[in-house]
Design goal:
Blueprint: E1 6-10, H1 15-26, E2 30-35, H2 38-48, E3 53-56, H3 62-75, E4 81-84, H4 99-126, E5 132-136, H5 149-169, E6 175-181, H6 190-193, H7 196-204, H8 214-225, E7 236-239
Parallel strand pairs: 1-2, 1-4, 2-3, 4-5, 5-6, 6-7
Helix pairs in contact: 1-8, 3-4, 4-5
Length: about 250
Amino acid sequence: MSEQPIALVTGGAQGIGYACAQALAEDGARLVLCDIQSEELEAAAQTLGSDTVAVTCDMGDEAQINAMFDRIESDHGPVSILINNAGIALPGDFLDYDAEAFRKVIDINLIGTFLALQRAARTMVKHEIEGAIVNMSSINAQVAIPAIPAYCASKGGVAQLTKAAALALAPHKIRVNAVGPGSIDTAMMAGVNANPEAMKMVMSRTPLQRVGAPREIGDVVAFLASKKASYITGETIYVDGGRLGMNYTC
C-alpha cells in the first residue's frame, strides 16, 4: 500500500458519506468522492481540499461503476480503501409498493455495493494491496420498518455480502467489514426531526436518548479502514445508541 492510500467513498457528497471522507482525510488518505448529485459533489470536494477528486457516478449503473474505476486507476492509481456508502430508501405502503421502486433500491444499495466491492477487490489482488472495504449496512438489516421493505431487504443483503466477501478475500489479506447506523441526523431523517411525535418514537427506542451525528459513523468507518482494525473482518458494527439491545419501547 502506498504511503498515501487512495480512499473511494461512494455517496460522498453529504451526510454519512461526507463524514466518512472527513475522517479518512484526517487519517491521511487521498480522497476520491463519487455521487450522483454533481453540484453537491463538487462543493464537497472543494471543501475537503484541492487534492480531493470528484467523480459523478450512478451506483445503480454497472457501466458507470466500471468507468469510474477505470478513470480512478488511470489518473490516480489503485484504490486501497473502498467505502460503499451510496444508498436510497424510497418509502411506501407495503401492499402498494411498486416493484420498479423495489428493484431500484436493490440495484443501488445491494448490487451497486457488490459491483464496486468486486471491482475494487480485483484491483487490490492484482496489485497485491492489503486493502480495506467497508460497506454501509443498517440496523434495518436486523430490525424492519414496514414502509421501507426494499431498504430492509437490501441492507440485510449487504450484511451477508460483507461476510461472504470477507471469507473470499481473506487469503489476499483484504478485509471487508460493515457499519450499521441507527438513527443518524442526515437528510434521510429530516422529516422525523421536524415531527415531535415521530422524534418521541425514535427516542423511545434509543437508550442513549439522542440521534447520532454523521461523524460518529465516519469515525467507526475510518477505524475499520485503518491498521487499528487489522484483525477484524466479516463483521458489522452497529452504531445505534443501544437500540438493537432493547426488547421493548417506553
